[in-house]
Design brief:
By secondary structure, the chain is α/β, with parallel strands linked by helices. The chain has 10 helices and 8 strands. The longest helix has 17 residues, at 45-61. It is globular. The structure holds cytidine-5'-monophosphate. Cytidine-5'-monophosphate binds next to strand 8 and helix 9.
Length: 239
Amino acid sequence: MFLFCMVTTMNDPKVIVALDYPTAQDALDMADRLDPKMCRVKVGKELFTVAGPDVVKQLMAKGFDVFLDLKFHDIPNTVAAAVKVAAQMGVWMVNVHASGGSRMMRAAREAVDSVANNVTHLIAVTVLTSMSPEDLSETGISKSPLEQVLYLADLAKQAGMDGVVCSAQETQTLRKALGDDFLLVTPGIRMPGDSAGDQRRVVSPADALKNGSSYLVMGRSITGAVDPISVLNEVNGYQ
Ligand code: C5P
């Protein structure tokens, strides 16, 4: 009897695993359990602050596409310079805050485009998925999260962004308004039964994909699971 072991790979893995760890070694240990053909990885503020560009380069050397999630929000010149060095490093994706305004986003666009053979997607954060309507109104914004996300996503598209970060609760509306080519990257993903933690606008992976998410950012639901690979395989099975 022959046993066929089929290795399935994906051309465009939809899951981005958030490597939110306090040391490079923790992040690299998790990366060693993952397969770059089955997911991408995200380096955020905690890991980057402790381990810097070295860990980004080490992850890329292991074959991973890296989303550098530093959510830049500063004067146009500073943000442009920061995304330019990220693009020169060859990261797969980098982001800025749409609330930094269109002049800041356009400067970032020009800076990324000035890099020869650029491979970096430039996207903008709309409203953090950890924010509830009350959190938003506390910052002086009286629109609902959906209205504010739509407003900022439209601004981001006009400023030349490749897509936005939003909640999968908002993707159906954004898909209709902004078209099929605009990337919708959605954190706030939870497996049924998982705790929401600090996130507020959460959605299951199956619903997020159904609602039109381009990529799912998943941190604790994968990295905090007893068997992270089986959770990743389960999510990949929804595609
Ligand atoms: O553990 P969890 O799945 O909540 O992790 C979500 C990840 O996505 C975190 O690294 C967080 O910083 C990031 N993120 C987010 N909301 C955004 C942008 C990024 O939660 N709008």
